[in-house]
TrEMBL record:
Name of the protein described by the UniProt record: Low specificity L-threonine aldolase
Keywords: Lyase, Pyridoxal phosphate
Highest taxon of source: Bacteria
Family the UniProt entry places it in: Belongs to the threonine aldolase family.
Length: 343
């Protein structure tokens, strides 16, 4: 099976499992797990930030960043296709009493002007604009890589208005692989940023949230309250360290494979690529075939290729370390067959 459903479908490699088995561990909740501490230091250094905290998920990174840096009645500015807005169970509202202002964009990349227009002037009657989140790369809008100038312009607008600048960097290292711009350059001047270990990096679980030392002290309170404090988490952190040593170069291969998939799919009659492929995620439409995208995806699955019908007349494909170039070729062949038989 060629599983292009998501880069969350990666399985820990033999080397990663070995690193996990050998991990030196302690009690994370008391700050005594050396492997987790090493992962936090390593990630903070990678992002050029003072400190970090290990989290069970990226979802908790976003939530803790929001809860720590806002208060009930605040409003946060995000892209309308963002993970925060669509797939975190409205946690900012449900747990923090924080509302969300979504910006409409083509590809998940909004402009500084849009951010500025969304920031409310202080008023007794209005929510208090408190935080702007940049998702780099974008997930649901198809792996767009934010241009560095756009990141910085949004950051500068946020800072000028006294807002927190947060980066959802679930796939920040895919952006790094695509552009050669360092993670530290991308998040320079941001208050908080995080990377996911369980996407393209191939770990079974985990994400690392970074910020100032003072921020991390407060973030720990929320991590604990939300039930995110762990014990011998070094077993998990060892997977993260292994991934940073061995799987970062793979992200470039993943991005290249997505581009090869893009080129192959483009050549198929009735298949239309929705947006230029910039990293490891691509979106395409089969509307021209006149069949529901779920039917197209199902027929591909019967041929051993798993795409993700997103329900928005589109199909998403995500490359990762468990899909090699031969897998990409098989996916293209399956799509070609299905297009011919359904079209
Ligand atoms: C996957 C993802 C998250 C959430 O991360 P989990 O580790 O799955 O909780 C947040 N933001 C983006 C952009 C993502 O792709």
């Amino acid at each position: 099976m060629v599983d292009l459903y998501s880069d969350t479908q990666t399985r820990p490699t033999a080397g990663m499992r070995e690193a996990m088995a050998k991990a030196v561990v302690g009690d994370e909740q008391s700050g005594d797990d050396p492997t987790t501490n090493a992962l936090c230091e390593r990630t903070a250094a990678l992002l050029g930030m003072e400190a970090a905290v290990f989290m069970p998920s990226g979802t908790m990174c976003n939530l803790v960043a929001i809860l720590t840096q806002t208060r009930a009645g605040d409003e946060i500015v995000v892209d309308a296709s963002s993970h925060i807005y669509n797939t975190e169970g409205a946690s900012a509202a449900a747990i923090g009493g924080v509302s969300t202002k979504p910006l409409t964009t083509e590809n998940g990349v909004f402009t500084a002007e849009q951010a500025e227009a969304a920031i409310r002037p202080p008023a007794r009657t209005a929510p208090r604009s408190a935080l702007v989140s940049v998702e780099n790369t974008t997930a649901f809008s198809g792996g767009s890589v934010w241009p560095l100038e756009a990141v910085r312009a949004v950051r500068d607008v946020a800072k000028r208005h006294g807002l927190i600048a947060h980066m959802d960097g679930a796939r920040l290292l895919n952006a790094v692989a695509a552009t050669g711009i360092s993670a530290a350059d991308y998040v320079d001047g941001f208050d908080t940023a995080w990377i996911d270990l369980s996407k393209g990096l191939g770990c079974p679980v985990g994400a690392v949230l970074c910020g100032t030392k003072d921020f991390i002290v407060e973030a720990w309170r929320w991590k604990y309250r939300l039930g995110g404090a762990m014990r011998q988490s070094g077993v998990l952190a060892a997977a993260g360290l292994y991934a940073l040593d061995h799987h970062v170069d793979q992200l470039k291969v993943d991005n290249d494979n997505a581009l090869a998939l893009d080129h192959g799919l483009r050549a198929i009659e009735g298949v239309e690529i929705a947006a230029p492929t910039q990293s490891n995620i691509l979106r395409f439409s089969v509307e021209a075939l006149g069949v529901p995208e779920a039917d197209f995806a199902k027929a591909c699955l019967e041929r051993g290729v798993r795409f993700r019908a997103t329900g928005a007349h589109e199909i998403r494909a995500t490359t990762h370390l468990d899909v090699d170039r031969a897998g990409v070729e098989r996916a293209i062949a399956a799509a070609r067959e299905v297009a011919a038989s359904l079209g």
